[in-house]
């Protein structure tokens, strides 16, 4: 892959792995949120991806769908927010669809329940005025789709200069340059074009890749789901090999019926 730069100049080397949430230095209320949500052990991408996020490094998360990237960047953001400050939004997550933005919002709220995080989804198809009203009451995090977020920026209901953490989910679909402070990029695929554009606005990011065994597990899961030759037991057994996403198994179960 030719990025026009040497890889070592582009990425910050990072290889720390944390086998449990307790060892990641997360604040107590965030840990309570994570465990209450039902997560017991971090998935492979979380074992490597949460901590660099919490340190404020720019991060590229690259792992297949369903491997726990959303929980990774949500935890990273939740750890760093200044909860005493709600008058300006501190973190922005951009997602390509309303459904995904709503999903991330719910997830962020659930993990940040004990931190009393205020999260709002700015998505098209809802009242612009209501969005403005909610933002004026103060939120810590906005999760939104590009059009509505742009509208909020234009109306100055959202101020880009106050945003300290920015995450672009499904980066291959929606990368655009321009924001400063911490930048996270999360995607199942990372094309040369995405990397080249990332280079322009990321500061020597660490790159966290999904582990091969996790990808294989994901492949097996999708095979079983496609063939409908599965049940919760089968999937739980598969996941027990690495014990990452038991809850995800249940989510999969619901969404395919
Ligand atoms: N450590 C964990 N333990 C148990 N379940 C988990 C864990 N991390 C994530 N999950 C669950 O796995 C499922 C997939 O996680 P998540 O949405 O974070 O994956 P993703 O990689 O962001 O997927 P996508 O790329 O499709 O957005 C969710 O149902 C989530 O609740």
Automatic annotation (TrEMBL):
Sequence ranges assigned to domain Helicase ATP-binding in this UniProt record: 50-208
Pfam families noted in UniProt: DEAD
Residue span of motif Q motif: 19-47
GO MF annotations in UniProt: ATP binding; hydrolase activity; RNA binding; RNA helicase activity
EC number: 3.6.4.13
Catalytic activity of the protein: ATP + H2O = ADP + phosphate + H(+)
Keyword Nucleotide-binding among UniProt keywords: yes
Record-given protein name: ATP-dependent RNA helicase
Keywords: ATP-binding, Helicase, Hydrolase, Nucleotide-binding, RNA-binding
Matching InterPro entries: DEAD/DEAH_box_helicase_dom (IPR011545), Helicase_ATP-bd (IPR014001), P-loop_NTPase (IPR027417), RNA_helicase_DEAD_Q_motif (IPR014014)
Domain notes: The Q motif is unique to and characteristic of the DEAD box family of RNA helicases and controls ATP binding and hydrolysis.
Protein family (similarity comment): Belongs to the DEAD box helicase family.
Domain annotation DEAD-box RNA helicase Q: ranges: 19-47
Lineage: superkingdom: Eukaryota
PANTHER family, A to Z: RNA HELICASE
The keyword RNA-binding is annotated on this UniProt entry: yes
Function: RNA helicase.
């Amino acid at each position: 892959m030719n990025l026009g730069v040497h890889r070592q100049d582009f990425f910050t080397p990072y290889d720390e792995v944390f086998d449990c949430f307790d060892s990641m230095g997360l604040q107590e209320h965030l840990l309570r949120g994570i465990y209450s949500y039902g997560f017991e052990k971090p998935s492979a991408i979380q074992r490597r991806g949460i901590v660099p996020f919490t340190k404020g490094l720019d991060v590229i998360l690259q792992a297949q769908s369903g491997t726990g990237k959303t929980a990774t960047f949500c935890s990273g953001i939740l750890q760093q927010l200044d909860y005493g400050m709600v008058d300006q939004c501190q973190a922005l997550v951009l997602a390509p669809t309303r459904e995904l933005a709503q999903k991330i919002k719910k997830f962020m709220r659930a993990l940040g329940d004990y931190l009393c995080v205020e999260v709002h989804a700015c998505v098209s198809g809802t009242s612009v005025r209501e969005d403005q009203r909610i933002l004026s009451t103060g939120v810590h995090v906005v999760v939104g789709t590009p059009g509505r977020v742009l509208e909020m920026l234009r109306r100055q209901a959202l101020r880009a200069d106050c945003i300290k953490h920015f995450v672009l989910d499904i980066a291959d679909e929606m990368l655009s340059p321009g924001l400063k402070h911490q930048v996270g990029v999360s995607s199942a695929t990372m094309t040369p074009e995405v990397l080249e554009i990332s280079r322009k606005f990321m500061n020597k990011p660490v790159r966290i890749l999904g582990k091969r065994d996790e990808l294989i597990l994901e492949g097996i899961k999708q095979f079983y789901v496609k063939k409908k030759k599965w049940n919760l037991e089968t999937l739980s057994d598969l996941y027990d090999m690495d014990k990452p996403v038991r809850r995800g198994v249940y989510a999969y179960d619901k969404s395919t019926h």
